[in-house]
């Protein structure tokens, strides 16, 4: 990793040749209040290396987007942060990731507790086959919460937080599966925020939604800013430019450039970032 440096023209060739390439991290991200700190993080699926020495701090209370061509490792990085990749056979990691200053790989870490600190929402909405109410309070139920007042209050608060309350307040006992795709995704966001996580991990949350539902999720992400640290993987560059404060451009498992979204999309420091965001490759 290095501070501002002149753009190099042969990064992609170097990467393809297996050479080490420094990430370019903009000054604004060198000393931030980080909710998540990723340090020299590498990951292998068996013998195949999918992430190469990624170092980046994810600023607290802001929206950070991971962009890059298909297969560059965006989802792998996102799934590493809450140790979802632990379930993959033959996985090896090196380096560290810390949440609120605590390493997620410390020997004593309870992975279930760790995941409670990070809500996750996937590409396809995945409501459980139960009522809207039970979907939202599910994280509290599994924690043994039985107090109806608490459950009611968390349900309302989370649905309001996910901008869904007005649409479903009269049908809380109906199945979550009966909602539209966009409503289901907001229901999943309500479930993700019900346990008051520190970080929200969103893996292409709009890819299965129509433009109207996508717009609502984008508005919602905008509202969540400040209360939550959001890390979002998106294929959609317009979406990244609309909703994120910071953008990280990845290529073939490397972090190429990371900076304020406005700069990444209008004045990137690296030529390859410019080529990607202007659609010249990818
Ligand atoms: N469970 C797995 N086992 C083996 N290889 C994997 C696994 N998951 C991902 N990979 C490989 O790791 C690399 C990174 O994949 P990943 O899904 O993280 O990329 P991505 O940038 O999120 O791609 P996309 O935008 O297409 O979802 C790819 O080469 C992929 O084939």
TrEMBL record:
One of its GO terms (cellular component) is membrane. Keywords: ATP-binding, Nucleotide-binding, Phosphate transport, Transport. One of its GO terms (molecular function) is ATP hydrolysis activity. Residues 36-277 form the ABC transporter domain. InterPro entries: AAA+_ATPase (IPR003593), ABC_transporter-like_ATP-bd (IPR003439), ABC_transporter-like_CS (IPR017871), P-loop_NTPase (IPR027417), PstB-like (IPR005670). The keyword Transport applies. GO terms for biological process: phosphate ion transmembrane transport. Pfam families: ABC_tran. This is Phosphate import ATP-binding protein PstB 3. It comes from Aureliella helgolandensis.
């Amino acid at each position: 990793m290095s501070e501002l440096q002149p753009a190099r023209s042969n990064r992609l060739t170097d990467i393809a040749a297996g050479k080490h390439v420094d990430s370019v991290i903009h000054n604004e991200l060198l000393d931030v209040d980080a909710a998540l700190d990723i340090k020299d993080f590498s990951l292998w699926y068996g013998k195949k290396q999918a992430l190469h020495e990624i170092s980046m701090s994810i600023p607290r209370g802001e929206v950070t987007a991971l962009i890059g061509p298909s297969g560059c490792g965006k989802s792998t990085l996102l799934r590493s942060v809450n140790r979802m990749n632990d379930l993959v056979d033959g996985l090896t990691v090196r380096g560290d990731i810390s949440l609120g200053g605590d390493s997620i790989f410390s020997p004593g870490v309870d992975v279930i507790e760790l995941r409670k600190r990070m809500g996750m929402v996937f590409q396809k909405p995945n409501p459980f086959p139960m009522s809207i109410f039970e979907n939202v309070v599910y994280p509290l139920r599994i924690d043994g919460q039985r107090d109806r007042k608490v459950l009611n209050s968390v349900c309302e608060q989370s649905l309001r937080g996910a901008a869904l309350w007005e649409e479903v307040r009269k049908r809380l006992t109906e199945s979550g599966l009966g909602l539209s795709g966009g409503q289901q995704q907001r229901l999943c966001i309500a479930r993700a925020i019900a346990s008051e996580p520190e970080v929200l991990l969103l893996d292409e949350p709009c890819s299965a939604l129509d433009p109207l539902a996508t717009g609502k999720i984008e508005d919602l992400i905008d509202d969540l800013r400040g209360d939550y640290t959001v890390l979002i993987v998106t294929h959609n560059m317009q979406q990244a430019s609309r909703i994120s404060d910071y953008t990280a451009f990845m290529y073939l498992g490397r972090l190429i450039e990371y900076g304020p979204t406005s700069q990444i999309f209008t004045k990137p420091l690296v030529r390859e970032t410019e080529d990607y965001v202007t659609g010249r490759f990818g």
